[in-house]
Protein backbone atom coordinates (compact mmCIF):
# COMPACT_ATOMS: atom_id res chain seq x y z
CA UNK A 1 0.00 0.00 0.00
CA UNK A 2 1.28 3.45 -0.91
CA UNK A 3 1.10 5.80 2.06
CA UNK A 4 2.46 8.81 0.19
CA UNK A 5 -0.11 11.59 0.13
CA UNK A 6 -1.22 12.48 -3.35
CA UNK A 7 -0.75 15.99 -4.62
CA UNK A 8 -4.14 17.68 -5.05
CA UNK A 9 -5.33 18.35 -8.56
CA UNK A 10 -5.87 21.81 -9.97
CA UNK A 11 -8.61 23.85 -8.23
CA UNK A 12 -12.11 22.88 -9.25
CA UNK A 13 -14.21 25.11 -11.43
CA UNK A 14 -17.10 27.07 -9.84
CA UNK A 15 -19.25 26.25 -7.96
CA UNK A 16 -17.18 23.32 -6.75
CA UNK A 17 -14.00 25.29 -6.07
CA UNK A 18 -15.57 26.61 -2.85
CA UNK A 19 -15.94 23.02 -1.63
CA UNK A 20 -12.32 22.30 -2.53
CA UNK A 21 -11.06 25.38 -0.70
CA UNK A 22 -13.22 24.59 2.34
CA UNK A 23 -11.66 21.14 2.45
CA UNK A 24 -8.16 22.60 2.18
CA UNK A 25 -8.87 24.99 5.06
CA UNK A 26 -9.96 22.08 7.25
CA UNK A 27 -6.94 19.98 6.30
CA UNK A 28 -4.51 22.84 6.89
CA UNK A 29 -5.62 23.24 10.51
CA UNK A 30 -3.50 20.88 12.58
CA UNK A 31 -2.23 20.91 16.15
CA UNK A 32 1.36 20.41 17.23
CA UNK A 33 0.39 17.07 18.79
CA UNK A 34 -1.20 15.84 15.55
CA UNK A 35 1.82 16.90 13.51
CA UNK A 36 4.15 15.12 15.91
CA UNK A 37 2.21 11.85 15.76
CA UNK A 38 1.90 12.05 11.99
CA UNK A 39 5.64 12.61 11.56
CA UNK A 40 6.39 9.68 13.85
CA UNK A 41 4.15 7.37 11.82
CA UNK A 42 5.76 8.45 8.57
CA UNK A 43 9.19 7.78 10.05
CA UNK A 44 8.11 4.27 11.09
CA UNK A 45 6.91 3.51 7.57
CA UNK A 46 10.11 4.88 6.05
CA UNK A 47 12.10 2.40 8.15
CA UNK A 48 10.64 -0.38 5.98
CA UNK A 49 10.32 -2.62 9.03
CA UNK A 50 6.67 -3.49 8.57
CA UNK A 51 6.40 -6.79 6.71
CA UNK A 52 2.68 -7.61 6.78
CA UNK A 53 0.14 -6.17 4.37
CA UNK A 54 -3.11 -6.39 6.34
CA UNK A 55 -4.50 -3.10 7.64
CA UNK A 56 -5.50 -4.67 10.97
CA UNK A 57 -1.92 -5.81 11.52
CA UNK A 58 -0.54 -2.46 10.41
CA UNK A 59 -2.67 -0.70 13.02
CA UNK A 60 -1.26 -2.96 15.71
CA UNK A 61 2.30 -2.44 14.54
CA UNK A 62 1.91 1.34 14.51
CA UNK A 63 0.46 1.22 18.02
CA UNK A 64 3.42 -0.80 19.27
CA UNK A 65 5.86 1.68 17.72
CA UNK A 66 3.99 4.65 19.20
CA UNK A 67 4.06 3.01 22.63
CA UNK A 68 7.80 2.49 22.29
CA UNK A 69 8.03 6.27 21.84
CA UNK A 70 5.93 6.82 24.98
CA UNK A 71 2.65 7.66 23.27
CA UNK A 72 -0.58 6.43 24.86
CA UNK A 73 -1.95 4.60 21.82
CA UNK A 74 -4.75 2.05 21.60
CA UNK A 75 -6.64 0.03 19.01
CA UNK A 76 -10.29 1.13 18.96
CA UNK A 77 -13.22 -0.76 17.50
CA UNK A 78 -16.54 0.92 16.79
CA UNK A 79 -19.83 -0.80 16.02
CA UNK A 80 -23.24 0.50 15.09
CA UNK A 81 -26.67 -0.51 13.83
CA UNK A 82 -27.30 0.38 10.21
CA UNK A 83 -30.69 0.99 8.64
CA UNK A 84 -30.32 -0.43 5.15
CA UNK A 85 -30.30 -4.19 5.47
CA UNK A 86 -27.03 -4.86 7.23
CA UNK A 87 -27.55 -5.31 10.96
CA UNK A 88 -24.26 -3.89 12.16
CA UNK A 89 -21.15 -2.12 11.01
CA UNK A 90 -17.68 -2.51 12.53
CA UNK A 91 -14.56 -0.41 12.04
CA UNK A 92 -11.13 -0.10 13.65
CA UNK A 93 -8.74 2.80 14.01
CA UNK A 94 -5.98 4.04 16.31
CA UNK A 95 -6.62 6.25 19.33
CA UNK A 96 -3.84 8.43 20.78
CA UNK A 97 -4.29 10.29 24.07
CA UNK A 98 -2.15 13.39 24.61
CA UNK A 99 -1.38 15.64 27.57
CA UNK A 100 -1.58 18.95 25.71
CA UNK A 101 -4.50 21.12 24.70
CA UNK A 102 -5.69 18.43 22.29
CA UNK A 103 -6.64 15.49 24.52
CA UNK A 104 -7.47 12.82 21.92
CA UNK A 105 -6.33 12.14 18.38
CA UNK A 106 -7.81 9.72 15.87
CA UNK A 107 -5.39 7.98 13.53
CA UNK A 108 -6.65 6.20 10.42
CA UNK A 109 -4.01 4.51 8.30
CA UNK A 110 -6.33 4.04 5.33
CA UNK A 111 -8.41 7.21 5.48
CA UNK A 112 -8.68 8.26 1.84
CA UNK A 113 -9.99 4.93 0.57
CA UNK A 114 -12.98 5.09 2.94
CA UNK A 115 -14.55 7.75 0.71
CA UNK A 116 -13.96 6.18 -2.70
CA UNK A 117 -17.07 5.52 -4.78
CA UNK A 118 -17.43 2.93 -7.52
CA UNK A 119 -18.73 5.54 -9.99
CA UNK A 120 -17.03 8.81 -9.12
CA UNK A 121 -17.44 12.05 -10.99
CA UNK A 122 -14.33 14.04 -11.88
CA UNK A 123 -15.20 16.68 -9.30
CA UNK A 124 -15.56 14.10 -6.53
CA UNK A 125 -12.35 12.34 -7.57
CA UNK A 126 -10.44 15.61 -7.24
CA UNK A 127 -11.81 16.12 -3.74
CA UNK A 128 -10.79 12.60 -2.75
CA UNK A 129 -7.31 13.16 -4.17
CA UNK A 130 -6.93 16.09 -1.77
CA UNK A 131 -7.50 13.84 1.26
CA UNK A 132 -4.51 12.40 3.12
CA UNK A 133 -3.89 8.67 2.98
CA UNK A 134 -3.16 8.78 6.71
CA UNK A 135 -5.43 10.91 8.88
CA UNK A 136 -4.24 12.23 12.24
CA UNK A 137 -6.51 14.72 13.94
CA UNK A 138 -9.28 15.51 16.37
CA UNK A 139 -12.85 14.26 16.32
CA UNK A 140 -13.97 17.74 15.33
CA UNK A 141 -11.65 17.89 12.33
CA UNK A 142 -12.64 14.42 11.20
CA UNK A 143 -16.33 15.19 11.52
CA UNK A 144 -15.92 18.37 9.46
CA UNK A 145 -14.21 16.41 6.69
CA UNK A 146 -16.84 13.67 6.71
CA UNK A 147 -19.73 16.13 6.52
CA UNK A 148 -18.13 18.08 3.67
CA UNK A 149 -17.11 15.06 1.59
CA UNK A 150 -20.43 13.27 2.02
CA UNK A 151 -22.32 16.41 1.02
CA UNK A 152 -20.07 16.79 -2.02
CA UNK A 153 -20.61 13.13 -2.92
CA UNK A 154 -24.37 13.58 -2.85
CA UNK A 155 -24.23 16.73 -4.98
CA UNK A 156 -21.84 15.33 -7.54
CA UNK A 157 -23.68 12.04 -7.98
CA UNK A 158 -27.01 13.80 -8.35
CA UNK A 159 -25.54 15.70 -11.28
CA UNK A 160 -25.03 12.31 -12.93
CA UNK A 161 -28.50 11.11 -12.00
CA UNK A 162 -27.11 8.76 -9.38
CA UNK A 163 -28.06 8.25 -5.75
CA UNK A 164 -25.41 8.19 -3.05
CA UNK A 165 -25.05 4.72 -1.48
CA UNK A 166 -26.35 4.54 2.11
CA UNK A 167 -22.91 3.47 3.34
CA UNK A 168 -21.43 6.71 2.03
CA UNK A 169 -23.92 9.01 3.74
CA UNK A 170 -22.62 11.19 6.57
CA UNK A 171 -24.36 9.36 9.42
CA UNK A 172 -22.92 6.01 8.41
CA UNK A 173 -19.44 7.40 7.77
CA UNK A 174 -19.44 9.27 11.09
CA UNK A 175 -20.22 6.01 12.87
CA UNK A 176 -16.92 4.53 11.74
CA UNK A 177 -14.95 6.85 14.00
CA UNK A 178 -17.49 8.61 16.21
CA UNK A 179 -19.92 5.88 17.25
CA UNK A 180 -20.85 5.84 20.94
CA UNK A 181 -20.30 2.08 20.82
CA UNK A 182 -16.52 2.24 20.93
CA UNK A 183 -14.21 -0.12 22.79
CA UNK A 184 -10.46 -0.44 23.13
CA UNK A 185 -9.20 -3.79 21.86
CA UNK A 186 -6.34 -5.31 23.86
CA UNK A 187 -3.70 -7.36 22.08
CA UNK A 188 -0.37 -8.92 22.88
CA UNK A 189 2.86 -7.67 21.28
CA UNK A 190 3.82 -11.33 20.97
CA UNK A 191 0.97 -12.21 18.62
CA UNK A 192 2.42 -13.97 15.63
CA UNK A 193 0.90 -11.72 12.99
CA UNK A 194 2.35 -8.50 14.41
CA UNK A 195 5.80 -8.12 12.88
CA UNK A 196 8.33 -5.98 14.68
CA UNK A 197 11.72 -4.70 13.56
CA UNK A 198 13.86 -7.08 11.53
From TrEMBL:
It holds the Pfam family PDDEXK_6. NCBIfam families: A_thal_3542 (TIGR01615). This is Uncharacterized protein. It comes from Artemisia annua.
